[in-house]
Amino acid sequence: MRNLAALVFVGGLAFLLLVIFNQFDFAQAPMVVGQGILMDAPDRVGAANIVTAVVLGYRGIDTLGEISILFAASAAAGLVLGRRRTDARRDPPGGFILRSGVALLFPLMLVVGFYIILHGHLTPGGGFQGGVILAAAFFLPLLARPETPVNHAGLSIVEGGAGAVFILTGLAALLQGGEFLQPLLDNGVLGELVSAGTLPLLYLAVGLKVGAELAGLMARLADVEVDEP
Amino acid sequence: MMPIEVGTVLYAGAIGLVVVGIAGIVLSHHLFRIILALVIAEAGANLLLVLSGFRWEAIAPIITGGDAVQTMVDPVPQAMVLTSIVIGVGVQALALSLTLRAYGAYKTLDIRELQRRMSADLAGEAGTPLPQSLEEPVGGRPLPAAEGDGR
Amino acid sequence: MTLNPLELIVAAMLGVAVLLGMLRLILGPTAPDRIVSADTISVIITAGLTGLAAWLGSALYLDVALIYGILAFVGVVALARTIEGGRQ
Amino acid sequence: MIWVVALIVIMMLVAAVTVLLVRNHIAAVAAASLVSLLLSVLFALLRAPDVAMTEAAVGAGLSSVILALALRRLGLGRVKDA
To answer: Is residue D45 part of a domain?
Structure first.
């Protein structure tokens, strides 16, 4: 009976969504706001990647809220999961191929991660994607050798420092008479690495913060047995 | 018989993902499957948002040095979806850690069993009599007396 | 938005390859079969993303293939370690 | 063009149904990462390389890592599938 009701509900939802989206024409986006941003962004923000300009230039405070949500989720998960018991049984280390492959891959992933973060205003990518790669880079050795120690205090320091840099950049704009998180400095030449004012700095802070949070989260999840908090 | 258009196929895919995800959330009894279904529904919603900003003959919203001005797709929904995906993984991690705690406390992941044991626990802590059942008996029979272990 | 014959052949081959991989993912009798098929599909689709970059004529899409190629490895290794840890 | 899109959408829906129906949890996680992966190809086709990259990194990589680690802690990752 319950299943039947659920199926009726789901079918009705599908019908409703189909009817609603039949009203829209595909590929005819009106772009009221988007066209203005496309015209305005190269001169005012100076980022070649317009999505980056929207994320950090026009909606910076939204991004601050986003990384706050991510921090809250990661902190709550850490609180719920507890800490590792010292006498817990550990998994055996991985095989030879995995261990040597990880040793080869680790520096490569660091380079790619920082490339993605620092070119966030020129090519697709940015702090979130690069941060995920950094977290994966620091998590891979733990996967190959489970006895590797994890420096949670260091991760917390990196995370807090990066968040502080993000907010201080916003406050500096406020002190200079602008809006909160308004891009500072000179825009530079469109398409150069050092351009778009403070956007690369902001994205670097976001990348380090996201990377530290996710690495800590994965390290906590990887512990097989934990204490009861 | 008009030919099927690309837009119809894409909208059908996005709505299909949302519907499959919600069906999974409603119909499955296993907590891990419910989290997976949540991920799928979220993916469908993201696809709907990106579809709303697409235009034909447009390029990605990234200026690549060519001086010819071309039409670009709408960057605003893309930025929104970027935020949505990252928040989605945070929510997923939190849900998984809560699932792990629930498993540690009750040793089951079936939501019906979990609800029964949780309500028994709550009643035990509050000192009230255990709820016998969460559903009304069929046919208007009287409720049994309030003894028994409630499981 | 049209494909020339060569691109059509490439797309068809990639599609058939992914379909065969999905068959193994759904049918696969044991968990290692399914993980290997997931890895195979991810490699095929990395190739597909590279072809997409060539078709759209923009090098921006190559970064997507790069990121996916790296992170699919991490995901598959985590899945493989999961069944390895469970066996003992 | 339409055939490519239709193929990707159909495979995505099949993988999504597989996630809900397959009995083995490991296979469910692998199918969920396949959904994310095909979705990221669709995003790239829709001229959204930023979103495609995020979906590939987060949905297909990080999410399956987190799900696999949780499976191992739940003890559901045993090789018992016949």
So the answer is: yes
Residue C64: list chain B partners with CB under 8 A: none
Helix pair D63-74, A199-222: axis angle to 10 deg: 20
- For A88-155, the DSSP string reads ---PPP--HHHHHHHHHHHHHHHHHHHHHHHTTTTSS--HHHHHHHHHHHHHHHHHH-TT----HHHH
Q: Are residues C19 and D6 in contact, defined by beta-carbon separation less than 8 angstroms?
A: no
**C-alpha closest to that of D68 among D35, D26, D27:** D26
**H/E element, B41:** helix B31-51
Residue in A91, A118, A225 to test binding to C, most C beta-carbons within 10 Å: A91
Residue B125, class by beta-carbon neighbours within 10 Å (0-12 exposed, 13-18 middle, 19+ buried)? exposed
Q: All domains of chain B, ordered by start, with CATH?
A: 7-56+74-131 (1.10.287.3510)
Total Cβ atoms within 10 A of residue A222: 22
**Which residue, B149, B109, B110, B145, is CA-closest to B130?**
B149
- d(Cα A64, Cα A87) in Å, to the nearest integer? 40
Quote the number of domains for chain D: 1
pLDDT digits (tens, 9 = 90+) for B104-116: 888 888 888 888 8
Chain A positions in Cβ-Cβ contact with residue D53 (cut-off 8 Å)? 116, 124-125, 129
Domain that holds residue C34: 5-87
Rg over CA atoms, chain C: 16
Query: pLDDT 10s per residue in chain A (229 long)?
Result: 777 888 888 888 888 888 887 777 776 767 778 777 877 777 777 777 888 888 887 888 888 888 889 888 888 888 888 766 655 566 677 778 888 888 888 899 999 988 888 888 888 888 888 899 999 898 888 888 877 777 888 888 888 898 888 888 888 878 877 777 677 766 666 666 777 777 888 888 889 998 898 888 888 887 765 544 4
Backbone φ and ψ for C4, nearest 5 degrees, come out as -85, 170
Interface test with A, best of C52, C70, C83 (most A CBs within 10 A): C70
Asked whether C35 and D30 are in contact (CB, 8 A), the reply is: yes
Range of the domain at D21: 2-74
Cβ(D13)–Cβ(B19) under 8 Å? no
Cβ atoms within 10 Å of D82's Cβ, excluding its own: 6
Subunits in contact with chain B (3 or more CB pairs closer than 8 Å) = A, C, D
The domain total for chain C is: 1
Quote the CA–CA distance of C73 and C79 in Å, as a whole number: 10
